[in-house]
Amino acid sequence: MSPSPEEIFEAAGVRGFLHARRLGTAESVGVDADTLVVMASVVKVPLVLEFARQVAAGQLDPADRVRATAADRLGGSGTAGFADDAEYSLRDAALLALSVSDNTAADLLFDRVGVENVRSLLAELGLSRTSIIGAPRDLLRTIIDDTSAGLPLRALDPARTSATTPREMTSLLSAIWRDPGPGAQVREWMSAQVSWHRLTAGFPPEVAVAAKTGTMPGIRNEIGIATYPDGSAYAVAVFTVGGAETLRRPDIDRAIGDAARAAVEALRS
């Protein structure tokens, strides 16, 4: 018998929180699916959905340009780690935010989209337990302030930072999946994610996965949609806590994919 998601999390030495649902139905499975968890870069999914909605409504021109300067660069992947200034369109900022988790691109997109508008989107979708404290730069400020004061990091506490639940994230993914307009664009950008070591690693090559990771010390997440060759699709949200000694833990990354696969196979059976 294949191991359960709970057994997979235990073997990896982490606490796991998971929800999976067969899209278009009421069928779902979960592990502590209503527990509040830290979003980390998963926050970029509702951000980009709101951007795509504003573009569709004619409120934003996706070709408008933004410039990432030294003052904007937080360090990390994409333009966030560039040595020199860079300029790109809003739609390329959305692609960078989802494909390589570019924090600077996300900051510039938040500036145009508006944090309050992303919060309004969450409320409209009924995601009452999902909260956003601000853009990536706002999260970094809490880390700097807390480190300077010798305090526990708010960024690692779901009660004091951008947070959600696995069940609410599969609800968000469901809204994205059934939307033929902005949602379809978000799925396309999520499909371009370069990180294949979590959800994607858990599924066979013939299963298409569109996903977004989130990572902080001791926190590893991913949400996504897995579509099988028979056309059935599954929204999965996996969040883990543990393994804080290093950011590089391929065993935990793989456990996220294996737990997701186990949950989906339980639904398929």
From TrEMBL:
One Gene Ontology MF term: beta-lactamase activity
* Superkingdom to which the source organism belongs: Bacteria
The Beta-lactamase class A catalytic domain extends over 19-240
* KW Hydrolase (keyword) present: yes
> Is NADP one of the keywords UniProt gives this record?
no
Please name the Gene3D superfamilies in this protein's record.
DD-peptidase/beta-lactamase superfamily (3.40.710.10)
The protein's UniProt keywords, in alphabetical order, are:
Hydrolase
One GO biological process from the UniProt record?
A: beta-lactam antibiotic catabolic process
The name on file for this protein is: Serine hydrolase
User: Organism, per UniProt?
Assistant: Amycolatopsis mongoliensis
